[in-house]
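A quick aside before the break. I want you to see a complete sequence-to-structure record at least once, exactly as it would be stored in a machine-readable document. Don't worry about memorizing anything.
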Amino acid sequence: MDNIRVIEVKRSVFESNDKDAEKLRGELKESKTFLLNLMSSPGSGKTTTLTRTIEALKDKYRIGVMEADIDSDVDAKTIAQTGVKSIQLHTGGMCHLDADMTRQGLKELGLEDVDFAILENVGNLVCPAEFDTGSTKNAMILSVPEGHDKPLKYPLMFSICDVVLINKIDVMPYFDFDLEKCKEYIHMRNPKAIVIPICAKTGEGIDEWAKWLSENIDESIK
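That is the input. The structure line, written in tokens, reads:
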């Protein structure tokens, strides 16, 4: 498990990232690969949620994971322990990935035996939202300790996500977090967003999340 490949990716030189992202989506559709772009703040429980997701779906899909960080390979090692293909992407100081950087990662991951590819983006609520990675769907995790007002403070992130997972609901009694108010704020930014409360630690809500993923993966790769 210690032999994790570390891929150095550089920022895209393409003039239009949006155009390249659309091209990548077309390539993924042709290869029958579903790419999920998973975003969140540091400490939201992204890697734990990802581990739960893999456990729920690895018997149904061939899964590959790209862990993006400015440095280290800690998360890739954690994910490798689940038994799925995992590589680490170092962004060279960049706080996000764009479409060409994602393409570089997918090339190294190898899509010949991957139906469901997951990009765990760099942890923050600003930069990753500004750059289209070419993903099939975008999802983000908002943890209870961060507060229910985050959709008001980071509107772009919530506006681009197909799904918002509200994690750590087991500690909700100990924080001033209003779940219904949070849902209201999310839908102010994005009326179509699916909101799923979860607890990655206990597994609560993971079945609903896995069901949503399965339906969308099946639709994408059929």
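Two observations worth writing down. The first strand starts at residue 6 and ends at 8. The radius of gyration is 16 Å. We'll return to this after the break.
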